[in-house]
Amino acid sequence: MKLFLSTVIIIFSLSAQAAWSQEKQIVVEDFKPSSVNQPEKKFPQVNSQRRIRTSILAPIAHSVQLDIGGVKYDMQKDSNGIWIGESNPQDEGFHYYQLNIDGASVPDPGSLYFYGAGRLGSGIEIPSSDQDFFALKNVPHGLVSENIYFSKLTNSHRRCLIYTPAGYNENEKTRYPVLYLQHGSFENETGWTTQGRANLILDNLLALKQAIPMIIVMDNGYAYKSQSNKVKEGREESVFEEVLITEVIPMIDAKFRTISKRESRAIAGLSMGANQTMRIMMNHLDTFSYYGGFSGTANYPSTDVINVSTFLDGKYKEGNALNKKIKLFWLGLGTKEPIPFPGSVGAFRAMLEQQGIKYEYYESPETAHEWLTWRRCLNQFASKLFK
Amino acid sequence: MKLFLSTVIIIFSLSAQAAWSQEKQIVVEDFKPSSVNQPEKKFPQVNSQRRIRTSILAPIAHSVQLDIGGVKYDMQKDSNGIWIGESNPQDEGFHYYQLNIDGASVPDPGSLYFYGAGRLGSGIEIPSSDQDFFALKNVPHGLVSENIYFSKLTNSHRRCLIYTPAGYNENEKTRYPVLYLQHGSFENETGWTTQGRANLILDNLLALKQAIPMIIVMDNGYAYKSQSNKVKEGREESVFEEVLITEVIPMIDAKFRTISKRESRAIAGLSMGANQTMRIMMNHLDTFSYYGGFSGTANYPSTDVINVSTFLDGKYKEGNALNKKIKLFWLGLGTKEPIPFPGSVGAFRAMLEQQGIKYEYYESPETAHEWLTWRRCLNQFASKLFK
Lengths: 387, 387
What we know:
Chain A is α+β, with helices and mostly antiparallel strands.
């Protein structure tokens, strides 16, 4: 009986697996053009299974592949020389991808382009169940302004983007708190408004009166003294902290109607930006009183127990003093993030708890180290600021 | 003797031609990365002959071509699968281009991307002798702001870009005149600040005190009633004029510190935008008093003699009245523009002269229907506004 039951279970399991496998192969034909396509472009497309399909004319190519999420999917050529192919189902949210034509990695001519992975490349949007919070809606919209400035520290022109909320231009006497918000590695100052939709997230929060009107400043986290001889761990030492503190903040306070005090200043970032801004926060508690770390902490990439005496020069040693000084210490992470993020953020949280340091922690369901995690983090975090 | 001289001349001509032809083949090895490359990208490059060289890894491709100015140049593959190749010398200024990999037209992964020819594609900058006027310099910089708005006329979200000059945010009482500035066909609202460098041109003019501080508004010239049943010449009828007059101008006057009167409002455009804005100018002489038409006029594409009684409903019939009303009617054209632009603009100028209508005319040396022509036009035109 026992053997029989086992056999039944095995047979049932095998046929269930086969059915699942077969179902997995069936591509549901309800593809629609991606919402981040170039105007009038029919491809790439997304279906209800969250598969991506794209197409390109390449009459004499040997091989065309759709390259997304670390997997290259072979596409097929029809008699007109048009290649078409699909990916497996993807996570909800925004993903970078590219085409591979006979070994050449190129952007898909159908999509808009986004700066990530150190280059302008294709992106696709898989509809998510909660996409309403970052949708373009008929609500009052803030402005996103490009501000070019000359940095003496880097001896170069740099650019930051500034979100001013709807009503900023009309309410000429009102002053606003400021969130300094940083991108991740191999991204730039455009990431938060293009991939991240920070402006739309704030527009929507403000329309629902779920956030305090605020200015958001997004700078480029890569800043080096071009003539510097100081080299640290093989790379030139970053001067981003000095650029932000001594050049960007004074410029923003002079050019925009800010409330220029620590109680009205927040700093946050994602991944590399979370690491950078956590260090800047702890070095400048007289400048900022709110902190947000999205998918990153300053112990990255270590997952070891943190030695609070030596970590960041002992800045977390006095838990009580920090609790009095910091208005919000906020961390967020996706539930599908890869190694080492869960372990590293986990070790950091354990340190905070050991030190009795108050913090808030959010997990983004079913998302990895990607922009839907960070959009959700911003949505949560921004609603808690300056209240 | 006469025969002998002729023979000498013929022989001399032939050898000069051969020498010239041979010299033409020699590629001077002083290539440098283009100024509009993505960060850290070594290709595409430009040399002193104004040739473009680019390179891409495509190990199993049959054929890779550099496609620029209507010519496809074959590239060559080395033993590592890296393709490299050059174009013939190009005109000074900005050009769109693309790569062709086994028949697939794709952006070059090395360049920045620009919206033109109805898609985001590669661009390259050939240094020009007068490039100082549009260079990024250490002068005060204005802001370029993205403004999303909902258009009732098109029942859609649209976007315009607004340049506010350096000092706009700091001088909270100052009001500014406004230039409405339009892109060409298959381009969009980003063209004037990316390809056109309108913000840098104004920054530089203002630093030299060669222009009056002004706001520039750049909208998208494509606007249609999505549900419209009206179809004109196979295409849906444009409502851009109504969008600009009844939606954009009131919005800008409410949101920015404008001087809201005709004496402080200019309108200009390039190519399709010149045609559109000329019609809008003539229909709304109570709204605008300055006009600039860059490489285009409202008789395009006709080169016929204009019948002033019927052209634009007879709006040019009363030359004296127009001279009193219009503060500046300005036209510009490149000396290398193709058919039908010289003939069409020529016919329009002949009409203005016949009607005794005062206008200024500028020719951009050695440029065709391209952005260096339009940068130069803006530089000239903007310096004459609101004075």
